[in-house]
Fold this protein.
Amino acid sequence: MGESTAAPGTAGAGADAARGAGNCATSHDDPQPTVAVAPTGNSRIPDMGRPATFVLLRHGETLLTPQKRFSGSGGTDPSLSEAGHHQAARAAEALAARGTIEAVVTSPLKRCKQTAETVATRLGLDVTVDDGLRETHFGAWEGLTFKEVRERHPDDMNAWLASPDAAPTAGGESFAAVAERVAATRDRLTAEYRGRTVLLVSHVTPVKTLVRLALGAPPEALFRMELSAASLTEIAYYADGNASVRLLNETSHLRQGLAGS
C-alpha cells in the first residue's frame, strides 16, 4: 500500500496496509479462489501436487516511507532511497541463500522494479512486470500524511475508514476495488506458476490483501498485520483452492551483521 499509517494506533504502514476499516466486519463479497471438486464416488484424497508458492517481498524504503505519507500508484512514483537500496540488496542475499525462487514478478512502480531488479540480478533471473501488483491509487491524498488528510478531507477520510467501498478524494481507488484486482491477479498467477515458487515484489496493500484472503479473515484483520519495508511473506496455493500462509513480515535478513557494524 502506501507509506502512510491508516489510522492512529494501527500497526505497520496502515493506510497502505488496510483494505477495510474500522467497523466493517463482513467479508462475504471478498473474491476467493475457485475450488476444484473431486469426482463423485472417489473417496481417495487426490494428489494436489506441488503448490504455486508466492514469496512476497515488499519494496525497500523510499524517502516517503519513514515520513509515513500516502504513496500509491497515483503519485510521483518515488525511487528507492539509499536505505531502500541497501534493504533490497539484503533481501537479494537472503533469497539467494534460500535457493528456491524460479521467477520474479513485480509491480510496475519504480520502487518495486528497482527492488526486483536487484534481486533478479543476484539470482540470475529476468523480471516480469504485472500491473495487478501495483499499489492503491490514493487520489488527492498522495504525498500527504494521515494527519494532513484528516485536516483537509475529514468527511472523505471518515467514509474511507468506515467502509472498504469508499475511495480517497478525487478519483482514488477503494480497498474493495483493490481486493478484486489482487484476487484476479492471484488467480492468474497461481495458474501460470502452478508447482513453482515465484517472487512477487509489491506493496503493503496487495501483500496484506493476499494474506487476508488466504486466511479468510475479515477486512479489519489488515489493521492487525505489520508489513515492514523489504520484508518477506510466503503463501502456498494448492490445486483444490486452499491456501497456506507460511511466513509473514520476515525481516531477519535486514538485521544481520548490524550488531558488529
User: Anything to note?
Assistant: Strands lie at 52-58, 103-106, 127-129, 197-202, 232-237, 243-250. The longest strand covers residues 243-250. The CA atoms of residues 57 and 232 lie 5 Å apart. The chain has one domain: 14-22+62-252.
